[in-house]
Amino acid sequence: MEDIGCWMFMKKPFLAALMKCSNHGVGWDQLLVAAEQGHTKEMLRILRSDPELIFTADVVGETVVHVVARAGHALTITKLMQTFMRHHWMKVLLKKNVDGDTAIKHNHKEAAYRLGDRQEFAKDELNKDGISPWDLDKEAGYCSGVADIEMRLAMADIELDELYKVKWIEGTPIGVRGAFLKASANGVIKTKHIELELDRSGGNLLHIIAAKPGKVDILKLLVKFMNNSELASLPLERNKAGDTALHLALNKGRDEASALYLIEVAPKSAYLLNQDGVSPLHLAIELHYNDIVRRIFQLLPGTRIDSSIKKSLLRAKNASVVHAAVRSRNLGILERVMEELPGSIDSLNEEGWKPLSYAAYEGYLEEVHFFLNNFPDSARKCDRDGSFPIQKAVGAGHVHIVEEFISSCPLTIHDVDKRGRSILHIAVKYARPDVFSYLTKKKEVQKIFYLKDQEGKTFMDFATQLENRFKA
């Protein structure tokens, strides 16, 4: 049987087809069938019943928007964009497949134009070749060259140092809000711009100061004069975007000192999610602020947070903290996150992938090895699209990751996705010759040579179809 596999791989027409052909057309049952056919109403019906499907990606990282764009359904795109804007789904246009391509980068001029018209930032996204849709203007339908995208932030010119001049009254029961208003009435603080900022973005004074780098001393001054009620509530208050002051210290201020101080004041705030489903803990991990991450777990371990907070944290809209830890490529932080939040092993990112699948898809060997050794059961748990972690590695073409799976968990060889497709089916379908060559040389893989998918096809049937398509 090994000889059959090697012979097929070495057969020149098949090899040429396998290396040149990359079939991206996959789907999730009804939704992707509707997408391929441009049936907008049916797509919206399915998405209303399961909104998370909009961010779900297949084994090569493609979303339903890639499918619609590739099919060239410009009218469908226009109708979908209206719904996307209402449901805050526009960031799906920034999702990239394994080649780094967004949905805009396809050979359909009108479809690409309508996608780009709705999401300016998507036009600047680079794929793995360093090419953006702007660079493909003729192909994507942009004829006037690159337009400058200006971020007009109506930031108030706040003289925060004026706060130092406030004559605070020690032991006053009125707290920081009362003291601030009193100082304003006496003309000590210029409040016009501050009031404008608070009205526009919501939140409180901590939000304004935390968003400015290097203002930790002012934060300490404000906290010093908070009464007990304010101390318990203000650091946890959210602005209109759902951000706490700690979110802003990390995200906008990029101020590690201010962030550390706010964590000391209100450790619980580190776990609160904003409207994008991102917690300050998540931000600290992505920014590689290892001292902050360690301090968060010291002050309030993940095992001690409220069950409601833990549930929301593990089901974040954007990605769970363990996905952020994997993405940060810091094994020490990943180990600490999993120690504090072991339940996050089954959390999903926007694509509907669990942490092991994400690590396998990205080709992160150390992280895959960690999961397989410490959470071996995760190797045989499928993702939202019905495929398994090893299949993500095969689809992305990572031989070293596939080898790690087979070495650590040999039973993963037998796992098939919800359409009955084995790792050999996927290696052929997604044109991964290196993976295919490796698999067909493994004796244990011979046991799945004649496995059939739900359509009754073996991987060799896929290979024949691929070869015939290449000949045509």
UniProtKB/TrEMBL annotation:
The record's annotation in Pfam families points to: Ank_2
The source organism is Spinacia oleracea (Spinach)
Listed name of the protein: Protein ACCELERATED CELL DEATH 6 isoform X1
Question: Which SMART domains did the record assign?
Answer: ANK
Domain of life from the UniProt record:
Eukaryota
Report the gene name: LOC110776877
Q: Which InterPro entries match?
A: Ankyrin_rpt, Ankyrin_rpt-contain_sf
Q: Gene3D superfamilies, alphabetically?
A: Ankyrin repeat-containing domain
